[in-house]
Design a protein that fits this description.
Apoptosis, Tumor Necrosis Factor Receptor Associated Protein 2, Chain A, six-stranded mixed beta sheet, zinc ion binding
Length: 313
Amino acid sequence: MARSSSNGDSDETIRSRSKRAREDERDFNFDALIGAEEEEEEEEPNNEPQVHEQQEGSHVVVTLTDPELFDCPICYEPLTIPVYQCDQNGHIACSSCRTKINNNCPSCSRFNGLNRCPAIEKALESITTSCQNLQYGCKKSLTFDKKGPHQKACVYSPCSCPRLYCNFVSSAKQVYRHFTSSHEISAATRFKVNNSFPVLLNAGNNFHVLQEKNDGTLFILKNHYVEGLGNLVTISCIQPVFMRGFFYELVTKAKEDSLRLNSFTRSTPSRQVLDDGPPKTGVLLIPCDFINSDGQLKMDICIWPKLSSILRN
């Protein structure tokens, strides 16, 4: 015989209601779990490179989520026309890499043959991008097929301040201005082009900064000691590597002896690029007996632009 509760319901009715409540709670939790998983899937970012098109009046604006989408997958340089793809699976290669791999697709690991890819070439001619040196001042917009050549000759290519422990990086002109305004006068020997000036360099110092007074151009007087021989000295200019350098004359004297070097500055974006090894070209070897009693090398230096070399002759 079923018992009744205080409100008149039987035990069987109470058990039935409790069972339905548990089932409802289970269904609710399951639905909530599924909903949470779907929500997580919706929020998961898509890291695949994408191309988005947006209509603005009569023009179509193309935006790339991955600026390296049109880089060669072999050498990682920006693609330029002509572009090639393997016959088997369509793997891309730039013209330079095609010559090096001799038509053997490195992705397929076999000879497949490489032919022109007009679809990629058309995209390179159509899509416009900003120069990678935008943050350093370059405002130029260019199509992807011109991106590689431009980057190799962009005057806004980053250079770094030669001052020890300074991490400032910008275009060469901005680095010159930064050095003048942010570092003390004693941080460099300042000079005028086409004028000889003296430099005292501690024989144990690895480098010394030189700065032209008018436009602020920075130079590095690099010094490398060779045991038993003396000091190897050369001059480089802080600027992008493709930019034209300067002529210079370096003279050092000891008693009745003198040494002279006429050479051409190497362009370098950073003092750190000049490794600790001995320079291989455009170098003057100063013997140990040229070092004075204070452990210093005394030199007279003259630096001038290449264009003015005709006038000097």
